Amino acid sequence: MKLQLQHLSKRYGTKYAVNDVSTVLKPGIYGLLGANGAGKTTLMRMICGVLRPASGNIYLNGKTIEDLGQRYYSHLGYMPQDLGFYPDFTAREFMLYMAAVKGLDKKEAKTRTEKLLEMVNLSDVANKKIRSYSGGMKQRLGIAQAELNDPSILVLDEPTAGLDPKERVRFRNLISDFAKEKIVILSTHIVSDVSYIADTILMMKDGRFLLQEPMATVTDCIDGKVWEIVADSREAAEYSRRFSVVNLHHENNMVRLRIIHETSPAAGAFTVPPSLEDLFLYYFGEEAQNERSE
Amino acid sequence: MLVRCEFLKILRKKSTLIIMAVSLLVTAFLFGLPVLQFQTYNKDGVLKGTKGIAYEKEQFSAVSVLLTNEYITQTVREVQELFKDPNNVGYDGNEQFLIGDAYWNNIAPREKLLNTIASTYAAPGESAGYNKLPDLDITGGGTDFYQAREDKIEKLLNTPSRELSEEQKAFWRKMNSNVEEPFQYGYHEAWTTIISSFELLMFALLAICIVLAPVFSGEYQAGTDAVILSAKYGKTKLPAAKIIASLLFGLLAFTLHIIAAFGIPLAAFGADGWNLPLQAAGTTVPYPYTFLQATLISLGVVYMILIAMISLTLLLSAKMKSPYIVLTVLVPVLFIPIFLSPDGTSGIYNQTLFLLPYRASMPEVSKYISYQFGSFVLDAFYVRTILYAALAVIMLPLAKLGFKKHQVS
Q1: Cβ of A84 and B407 within 8 Å?
Q2: Using CA atoms, how far apart are residues A34 and A11, in angstroms rounded to an integer?
Q3: Per-residue model confidence (pLDDT) at position B266
Q4: Ramachandran category for residue B273: left, alpha or beta (phi over 0 → left; psi -120 to 50 → alpha)
Q5: Do the beta carbons of residue B187 and residue B64 sit within 8 Å?
Q6: What angle do CA A16, A22, A26 make, to 5 degrees?
Q7: Residue A184: how many other CB atoms lie within 10 Å
Q8: What parts of the sequence cross the membrane (chain A) (predicted)?
Q9: Residues B54-105: pLDDT tens digits?
Q10: What's the gap in Å between the CA of A186 and the closest CA on chain B?
């Protein structure tokens, strides 16, 4: 299976939300990273066929998704950002409804519904109205509906937004379970969500891909550029002003700083192995720092 | 399967049940009002409710006759005889009328019939009661009631303000030539109540449109559009299923309203008179239909209006982001015409007004409303049916396309 994005662009007014994006996706988990407004959601909507690109095409195994029509959609599972539900429906009713829209026959719909509700730990509350669900429960129901048709392309837009750390871990595990032999595109601006499970990182900024690298080598480009240094608070303030400081940790009366810089920022600084978060901050700098503080 | 899902989705909303319950109550109340307000009189005073209805039916049983020229001549003669005795006659400074036993024994039991006869001889636009009957000349061979009717219809057709073309006049003459003579007269209270109340069904129509306004836009508003449009049948079978389910719901809900609306006057007044000609209620009506036929034809037109309004609702729903915006368009379309009155039957303003949903729901069988296309003439029933059917045929595919092409943003 090969999903090819070819020169995709989408513009709102004069601003490009997605600008000439091209890539080829094969089975695996793709972590789509980017700050808010980078174009992740717009790109995912185009991949899911709910937003028409201004230019460019999407091909599945060589055929455009327009030509494939419902044959394409039968391969697709989508959990959009801010997915809405019918508050008067129970989780089971919602799943059965979605199964009908996805073209599952009655028997299969029932089997898949029960299995997925069990997997996302909602079986006990399956007959309760969705209006009574917490944010986390709704997110789990969201991923369950995306999995109903056992899609070979699973698109998850900010699936962990609003979840507490424990639920985020549970969610990551769920996605890993679902991901076998599938193209999974997982968008987030929370780096740790993808650092554990992604095979490939796609990083977006201003509507373009900044990099497309396997997880194992994605940080190679900043190898030797991540430094740590222990300084007193006066020096720490000076380093913060002069360099891109990605982390500050107070230890007794001293401060341990993590700095991204091409060369050693000061005597006594030593290089450390870069993390995905370092890479993210390297590209997004203040923009990401602001988001992180939010 | 999808149609069933969509139908249940509409039905199970609390708001659907509340709106339908309120609308049914309002419709039942509006159609029940003529029953509640019905009253008739006898020597002893006012008779209301079932007593009044029973009394009215009894009075009518004596005049459930074939209105032959001989019968009408004889009836007019009887009234004229009564007016000859000064003891029977009162005067209010303006006109003469019968008093005492002369009135209660001879006029009251058949006053509606006498008024119907008298109005046939009156000039167009003039009202006439039984006290105009003494003015009729019935010497010689008596009166020719049907000739008087023809003469009045001719005058109506030639009224300059109507601005009817020769083709339109010919159309109505031909229509009128199919009216069977002599007319059968009789009791028809339920049917006149129903035929004169069709426009009250607008409330039911609005309620149905309110329920259906979120069919597409509700998905956009709830944020479910992205998941359903990216599902296998989201852009193909689903919009069609939504449309079919909406039509199904609309037709069933409206039929329920019709049962309540027509059931009340029929249960109270009885179904008597279903086979009488419309002319029993107004002799210049040109349509050769019975009350039942006219009711069914009018009902057919109202159902077409309903289907077109559902189609418009769905089209707006597919194009707009919120059901509330849909209603800001629908409510004026349905209700602004209530405040507009026709000043005739010709001209673009009047002819358009008679086609707008509110006016189009009124049968208005005695108004001679016709539309000319070249030399081709059609009456209002036909034009309304064709117009609303065409609107539905145009708008439903557009609604489907609107949802299919919806961009999630």
Answers
A1: no
A2: 18
A3: 97
A4: left
A5: yes
A6: 135
A7: 25
A8: none
A9: 999 988 988 899 999 999 999 999 999 998 888 888 888 888 888 888 898 8
A10: 16
Half-sphere exposure of B171 (CA within 13 A, CB side): 17
B390-405 confidence digits (pLDDT tens): 999 999 999 999 999 9
How far CA B138 is from CA of A163, B69, B73, B141, B285, in Å, comes to 96, 11, 7, 7, 25
DSSP H helices, B43-188, are 49-61, 69-84, 100-101, 111-121, 145-157, 166-177
Report the pLDDT value the prediction gives residue A288, as an integer from 0 to 100: 54
CA dist., res. A134 & res. A121, Å (int): 13
Q: How far A16 CA lies from chain B's nearest CA (Å)? A: 14
Q: In what order do the strands lie in the sheet with A208-214?
A: A76-79, A153-157, A183-188, A28-34, A200-205, A208-214
ipTM of the complex: 0.87
What DSSP character marks residue A190? -
Nearest residue to B248 (alpha-carbon basis) of B10, B25, B19, B24: B10
Interval B295-337: pLDDT, tens: 999 999 999 999 999 999 999 999 998 999 999 999 898 888 8
Partners of A45 on chain B (C-beta within 8 Å) are 226, 408-409
Q: How confident is the model over A158-176, as pLDDT tens digits?
A: 888 777 788 788 888 888 8
> Structure tokens of B247?
């039509």
pLDDT for A294: 44
Tokens for B170, please give them: 């010919």
- A118 Cβ partners below 8 Å, 6+ apart? none
Taking 70 as the threshold, does the pLDDT of residue A289 lie above it? Answer: no
**Contact residues of A toward B, CB < 8 A:** 12, 45, 48-52, 69-70, 73-74, 76, 78-80, 82-86, 88, 96-98, 100-103, 106, 145-146, 149
Q: Which of B195, B201, B203, B202 has its CA nearest to residue B367?
A: B195
Given a contact cutoff of 8 angstroms between Cβ atoms, the answer to whether A8 and A21 are in contact is yes
pTM for the structure as a whole: 0.89
What's the one-letter identity of residue A16? Y
The answer to whether the CB of B163 falls within 8 A of the CB of B349 is no
Cβ of A262: how many Cβ atoms within 10 Å? 8
Is B376 exposed, middle or buried, given 0-12, 13-18 or 19+ CB atoms closer than 10 A? exposed
In this prediction, what percent of chain B has a pLDDT beyond 90? 73
Helices (H), B2-68: 2-11, 14-37, 49-61
